[in-house]
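Hey,

The postdoc asked me to send both predictions to you directly instead of through the lab channel. I've kept everything plain text so nothing gets mangled by the mail client. Protein one:
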Amino acid sequence: MRRFYVQNFGCRATQADGAVIERQFVDQGLRPAVHSAEADIVVINSCTVTGEADRDARAAIRRIRRDNPKCQIVVTGCYAQRAPQEVAALPEVSRVIGNSHKHELAKILQRAFVPLSSLQTENQDFRTKNREPGTENHVFVSDIFAHTELLAAPVFEAAGESNETARTRPNLKVQDGCGNRCSFCIIPSVRGHSRSLPLAEVIREVNALVDAGYREVVISGINLGRWGCDLRHSTGNEPRGDSRPRLSGRAQISRDSGIVPPFTASATQVLASTHARSYRFEDLIRAILDQTSLEPMDWSDQLISLMAESPRIAKHAHVPMQSASDAVLRRMHRRYRPWHYREKIEKIRAAMPTAAIGADVMVGFPGETDAEFEETRRTIEHLTFTYLHVFTYSARPGTPAAVMPNQVPLHVARERNRILRDLAAQKKLAFMRSFIGRTIRAITLNGRVSTAPSFPVEHSSTFTSALTDNYLKLQLHGIHEPNRWITVNITSVDGDALTGFAG
């Protein structure tokens, strides 16, 4: 029996796409390989959000071909959609299948391939001198905006584990694409229009995971706050019968993930309140009580109140900022102003004093002056963030920002990155230390244990990894079964994690 291997790069949405591809192969009668070196077909499910992401994919392609000379290497994902010519020119690549055709990837590999010359593409010349005369890559890429498919299948954080109980955090993608047009971002052109998994299908997938024994589900999307804008109550997607989410646990909110909590209200009641209008993200929250990274203006007062008032939602919010300079935000084509952003963060903190609040920040955007960067630094210093994801601007071909004047020198951007990372580390440490001597709820993860040499010898040095309900890493004394909610007494901070004993 032929074997396949899928290697995912990038965000949780890409990982969810990879799970769908795996399901396609299994349905075709193939079986998964443990390592790429053992596979007949290796799929590179690529990311293209930065130049480094492209380089990572190319390096993986070369390594796989070196370790497994006889395999077919199929490149799909965002890099394949953005630059099929570039990917197809790599001598190691057998097939290029963009996001536009990812939903039928396994079927494409099972049928006759369309030669390059027959494809209607912007650039037909994909061949290079590295290839033999007359040979062609097989490329399946078309206009992503013409496609309405949304791949949805749970992907498991502990994929590949032989012990099924080690799987504790299945990830379900419920939204894809983006309607924003930020000047630095390539994602809309490789992911297409925003589109949503109908609520009935979300509920069915969640309930299937609940029935399988999971206590949390990671909900992911490219621009999850836009979930439901393309759906209406009258579409016939209403859940019927037993459509209530049955998950036991708490909700977690993060950059691209969340944990679905217990919820007893009927999803049918939510649908009844949406008659004759598009869904809003609050409707999804009320139905499954979860969310992910949301754009600042998607954080409505109603959503903040829902989070604060429900004991079923963990207290964690990730709110992308990018910059606190009004001039930079305008050049970025972001849809909010710095004062709007500050107001949202202050409201979240006032409603949830113990919440972990994080942000994405970009440094070195074209034209960013020292004064504009200082506006961002001061804002971060003032606001009650607990962590940051700091990115150095990377020019993406085809975006307006790539051709803007006054590109910031790389060494300047990297220094700004370092400054913000140091500031973020200080804020995170202070936040973690504030929990010493307190109790907090946490869910145990994959059951693996570790040792902490810095701990006093009189205490046990065996720990179980866990995640608190406000998204902090935790090392829990002793060995505990995965997928369990536990009350923990926090005793110290060790590195980037809290440590404590089960209460």
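Protein two:
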Amino acid sequence: MRRLGAASGGTLALDSNTERQGPESCGVFCRKHATMNPNAVMRDPITLEDHQNSRWVIEPVLRLLDCCQESDGGVAMVITTVERARDLPRPPAVITAAVQGAAHDGEMMTSYYRDDITGLPEMGVVAEKLWRDSGLKPTDIQTAFLYDHFTPFVFAQLEELGFCGRGEAKDFATIERLSLGGSLPINTNGGLLGEAYIHGMNGITEGVRQVRGTSCNQVEGVEHVLVTSGTGVPTSALILAPAG
């Protein structure tokens, strides 16, 4: 998977002219959010300089602080009808839409043999279905959990999901915009880079917390939360919302 991250990240950097001037911001704001999360494993804040001083894992694309940790942990969810959920002690988070997607010429873990690896076509398939089924659009999302096993994939997801255009993530994904208080705070629990790598399941739990208003880094006025799953492979996403 690191090879896929490196191949995609390197090609994305060249395609968008980032020259390493962008994906590292993901590690910074994820750690920033993790400092406020008592359950996070990686709670020490980092700076862009810290990132640039971390050792190469795959040169010239992935440094150590571009890569998520390996974690032991678990997540439990109870999924039932909205009617039943209304009678439970805690406010429910309603699944507004949930979709899966695969793309042409994809493989389970080695999709870097495609002619074009500057994007994530599986996530593009998911995005089209997600916005269609939910009746929503990217501007209706107040916060999101984007699967951040390697930082370059966050850039690609922002583009495939329509939050910005192709090649624009390098300008869109600023620390200010994607941190708490910005226009699209993401991975408010610290993400896979900061909280823990529970294969994205902790993204769903953070989405539920945001809907309930119980997150350590609560976003104001949450009406819709987007959560994505593993990227670079057949993937999925869902949108959560409060019960009306």
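Summary for protein two, as requested: Strands lie at 56-58, 62-63, 93-101, 143-145, 225-228, 235-242.

Thanks,
C.
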